[in-house]
């Protein structure tokens, strides 16, 4: 019954929490690696539901037309089991972006105890565009079993304007590059909620709980140096929106993550 319950949750959460999982029209998907293992014989024998999966929920446009000096953002969201990571490639080569899911996750007591289901969002910032930025940019989402990609062709038109791209002197306001959008995990397990940021000076990251109170680190909660939130011994009362807040002297950025504690199978 657990898998069937999870299936219902995965179907209903996007509808009820529409601001957390954004659906878009199907666009071109670009193969990024044909050697990735695909779990074809992947269904649970009892329910027929997939144990592992991956899907791009939100994709950047197929073509982005911009002009020199403009600032643009490409955004991508993927959901799956295990929880996917996202990175970006430019003309087939990985762009230097923070990789959110490479470090060790909390350990489960056994292989069946952890759900590790959810969705991840990521943004690629194209600042002060020039004709050198004309290229193909690919959002790649992957977990241990699947990989999916979608490509945007960026076209940069020459500008006749004398106005150049303006940047704040002495720094940059915070940006949240990659974050957990939704996370489903069994009660009793530990859960890592990702929030990776950039800015100059380095932003200070704090988290707000579902009541929007500031989270203080204790035996229950820990905020990692990279900005992630670790929730230990997940309970039903922990369900709700957790808000990552990144701040420096130039501004503030926020991102929400919806946490759903599931009842483990007995």
UniProtKB/TrEMBL annotation:
Location of this chain's protein in the cell: Secreted
BP GO terms, sorted: homophilic cell adhesion via plasma membrane adhesion molecules; synapse organization
Domain Ig-like: 50-157, 174-260
GO-annotated molecular function: axon guidance receptor activity
SMART domains: IG, IGc2
Keyword Ribonucleoprotein among record annotations: no
Region ranges (Disordered): 22-51
Organism this protein belongs to: Oedothorax gibbosus
InterPro entries found in the cross-reference section: Cell_Adh-Cytoskel_Orgn, Ig-like_dom, Ig-like_dom_sf, Ig-like_fold, Ig_I-set, Ig_sub, Ig_sub2
Location (main, coarse): secreted
This protein's UniProt keywords: Disulfide bond, Immunoglobulin domain, Repeat, Secreted, Signal
Biased composition (Basic and acidic residues): 22-48
The protein, known as: Ig-like domain-containing protein
């Amino acid at each position: 019954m657990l898998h069937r319950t999870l299936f219902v949750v995965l179907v209903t959460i996007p509808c009820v929490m529409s601001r957390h999982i954004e659906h878009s029209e199907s666009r071109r998907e670009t193969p990024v690696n044909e050697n990735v293992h695909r779990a074809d014989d992947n269904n649970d024998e009892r329910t027929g539901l997939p144990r592992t999966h991956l899907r791009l929920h939100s994709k950047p446009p197929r073509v982005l037309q911009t002009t020199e000096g403009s600032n643009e953002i490409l955004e991508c969201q993927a959901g799956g089991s295990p929880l996917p990571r996202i990175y970006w490639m430019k003309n087939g080569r990985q762009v230097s972006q923070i990789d959110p899911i490479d470090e060790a996750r909390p350990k489960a007591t056994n292989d069946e105890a952890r759900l590790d289901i959810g969705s991840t969002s990521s943004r690629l910032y194209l600042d002060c565009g020039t004709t050198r930025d004309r290229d193909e940019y690919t959002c790649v989402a992957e977990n241990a079993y699947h990989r999916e990609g979608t490509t945007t062709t960026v076209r940069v038109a020459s500008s006749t304007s004398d106005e150049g791209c303006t940047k704040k002197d002495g720094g940059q306001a915070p940006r949240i590059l990659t974050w957990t959008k939704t996370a489903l995990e069994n009660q009793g397990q530990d859960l890592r909620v990702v929030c990776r940021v950039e800015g100059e000076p380095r932003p200070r990251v704090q988290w707000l709980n579902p009541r929007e109170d500031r989270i203080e680190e204790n035996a229950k909660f820990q905020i990692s140096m990279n900005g992630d939130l670790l929730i230990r011994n997940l309970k039903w009362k922990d369900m709700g929106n957790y808000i990552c807040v990144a701040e420096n002297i130039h501004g503030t950025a926020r991102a929400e993550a919806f946490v759903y504690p599931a009842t483990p199978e007995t």
